[in-house]
Amino acid sequence: MANHTQNNKMNSFGLTLTALCCVVLVLGGLPFSSDAQLDASFYRNTCPDVHSIVREVIRNVSKTDPRMLASLVRLHFHDCFVQGCDASVLLNKTDTVVTEQEAFPNINSLRGLDVINRIKTAVENACPNTVSCADILALSAQISSILAQGPNWKVPLGRRDGLTANQSLANTNLPAPFNTLDELKAAFAKQGLTPTDLVALSGAHTFGRSHCSLFVDRLYNFSNTGKPDPSLNTTYLQELRKTCPKGGSGTNLANFDPTTPDRFDKNYYSNLQVKKGLLQSDQELFSTSGADTITIVNKFSADKNAFFDSFETAMIKMGNIGVLTGNKGEIRKHCNFVNKDRIRMASRDSSESAMVSSI
Predict the structure, then answer these.
(1) 205 is annotated as contributing to ligand binding
(2) Which partner from 22, 138, 282, 289 sits 20 to 30 angstroms from 330, CA to CA?
């Protein structure tokens, strides 16, 4: 998709911080919730096998679709960026819900909704009406990271599911792949997330894939100049042009990390150092003159443990944004519908079935 207008860019918001990623990440007006009553052992007595149940489903899926691991990390990001980590991104369109799945950053972009539903079914069979979809998203991100040889952290649990979605916030609050560093930092700062959090969470782009539509302007018409992005490595530019031809559909996939595309490691940062960041928003972290993020990129490139530690801290911090606990929200029986809508639809379907059988 060459020669994009700004409107076209808006239609390609979906970032794979990548997942997500784009990775990454804001919540409109919902600050980090430092007093959320979450606990890694929340389900110790009520659903002690929840972690192993989630892991088994994801492990089986990843055998045939290794890309799914990055997609599930990104799905957690896209949930927490809008209304907090309340599983609002999972809600389908109904008479009362305007789904976030049809927001520009998510449409034809989100992956893993079916996997979350498979996990929810398995969890419900073991522990009915106990584990929230929001917690399943948080656990899925952690387990996906581990399966990709990445960081491991204790996931604070006890979230409840929200009762609505917010498509307009998804449209305005999720960062775009062409955001500048100042725009990314401002979005993070609103949520109490630091530049170190920004660089660490962006590191989720060390695995997974992105559609060409999210970065093709950099290859042919950067900032409407008719030329490629000068911050792109010229050899890498030619490789990407083969994957994403000028005037193509934009649906081809490119690896975020051309070296180890399915492994969660620190190569994302060494790629930035040699101008091989896939998205503009990736390369901005290192190529913005005088930026304080350059030092952080260099640190993470040199020290995997420093990156992993910062990623774990940032994921826990992000996972606490705007959470619902206690008597707020609900435990959804089906992740795609609030319980009220699910009961209403089941009643309607039963009524329609009875009508058919009586004819």
Answers:
(1) yes
(2) 22
